[in-house]
Amino acid sequence: MSSELSFIAALRGLAAHPAARHLDDDCAVLEIGGEALVLTHDAMVEGVHFLGQQDPADVAWKLVATNISDLAAKGAEPIGALLGYQLGDGDARFVAGLGEALAHYGAALLGGDTVGAPGPRHFGLTAIGRATCRPVPSRGGARAGDGLWLTGAVGAAMVGLEALRRGSGDSLAYRRPRARLAEGIALAPHVTAMMDVSDGVLIDAWRMARASGACLAVDSAAVPLACPESRRAEALRWGDDYELLFALPAGATPPVPATRVGEVLAGPAGCLRIDGELVESGENLGFEHR
Amino acid sequence: MSSELSFIAALRGLAAHPAARHLDDDCAVLEIGGEALVLTHDAMVEGVHFLGQQDPADVAWKLVATNISDLAAKGAEPIGALLGYQLGDGDARFVAGLGEALAHYGAALLGGDTVGAPGPRHFGLTAIGRATCRPVPSRGGARAGDGLWLTGAVGAAMVGLEALRRGSGDSLAYRRPRARLAEGIALAPHVTAMMDVSDGVLIDAWRMARASGACLAVDSAAVPLACPESRRAEALRWGDDYELLFALPAGATPPVPATRVGEVLAGPAGCLRIDGELVESGENLGFEHR
């Protein structure tokens, strides 16, 4: 039937509230009592976002980390989370991993719902954080002349998943991703735009270009890899690394370790340039949620 | 495997946050900037909470109404919601019903996530409201001597589901439940305990008894029915009506239409008395989420 994008476009037409506004596709900011709360919700489904045979503690960790990563991209410090949980095998392991991850990021479990149902396991988490910087960064603020930067490296989750499937080698980066929380909070006052790379550097850069009404030029050779050089093209299209992609005014340098991977051009608006070549659609750039 | 209750008990041991506290099993209160936010999350799964052939607009309505009902029981006015949505047939109808329900309850769609996955459809909603009354009512405050009251009647959803399955008759109460939002806000300053009846009057009264450390005595003949008298025993064990069950100090009368259905006794703590007969466990009292 419909794709994620058309569904989200339809949702955009729904009711508004004076205290709340959308921030990017997936986050909202709620102004309350002089504070700004950042809210996000991410789901994970067996066979789509994790393997059925994975340790439920790792699945829980990743569910928390992916949501905290959304808060990190907004420079928000975590407060808590609500869980949607489908009961099944390994519930105690799930609770163990959930507790580890929540403690690691300083978030409380605020509530949730459990369901007993057949079929692939579904888990959802809503994370709530407090903005440390106003205005709260979004992916929509990149301006011509800005430098484009990336924390860390990509490709680790890709080779991690392969190790997990193979049953040998280091799969930690896939199983237990780390949200760049401290980096996001340090960067928030300086960036013109920021987002976490959940679906791949290229597709997420394309989304930042669209949201900003600018053209993002990516120098693919500049992107640091955590996998063999021979797999660069794949690694740029692979998600799950949860690094932060951000734009900084020309001449500015980031307060945390990061690599300059491109620049922001005036146009064509909403397009990506990969090594000089213009890309007008998001197809074949990374993971899409359809 | 584990049941809902043992899972929730395990979750209770997880990390806390100074600004947040649990309120009952499913809700949290977040104190921020002098305001109190109420947060809740409810999920719905095809084949468990709705029929596969149902109009997705009705499913969306119910997803919103069940969450708003949790806010109503806390006397909170809705602000917004985050959606976890599994893409599939009827996405446009789902958006239509979601929009109707959110507009009806004055809530904004704040964000969410979409997933493409096989198997029964899963939807989750996190609702956020602003408390209108402090302390925020919980199910845990019923005291010996209080009267036990219920808004509206029960059994309508039960006969509504039967009509829907049969393909004739009025199924509206099952398909489009109404959250008692105005009633909850009016009641909040007066109640000692309040909860919405999502799983059945008897099991939810038992839960209120457990949370309050009191004994709730229910006069089953006093409970108003929206179904034939011959089905009273079933209707008291059927969920999905979303009426409010609340305790009021002796002699107080509620500011909204409601029926006195029993009283609160000192003990045995955590027990239910149905027409004088003591019930010590929640078994066979209504719907359980395992």
UniProtKB/TrEMBL annotation, chains A, B:
GO terms for molecular function: thiamine-phosphate kinase activity. ATP binds at G112, D113, S198. Mg(2+) 5 binds at D199. Residues 143-250 form the PurM-like C-terminal domain. Keywords: ATP-binding, Kinase, Magnesium, Metal-binding, Nucleotide-binding, Thiamine biosynthesis, Transferase. Mg(2+) 3 binds at D26, D70, D196. Belongs to the thiamine-monophosphate kinase family. HAMAP family: TMP_kinase (MF_02128). Reaction mechanism of ThiL seems to utilize a direct, inline transfer of the gamma-phosphate of ATP to TMP rather than a phosphorylated enzyme intermediate. This is Thiamine-monophosphate kinase. It comes from Novosphingobium bradum.
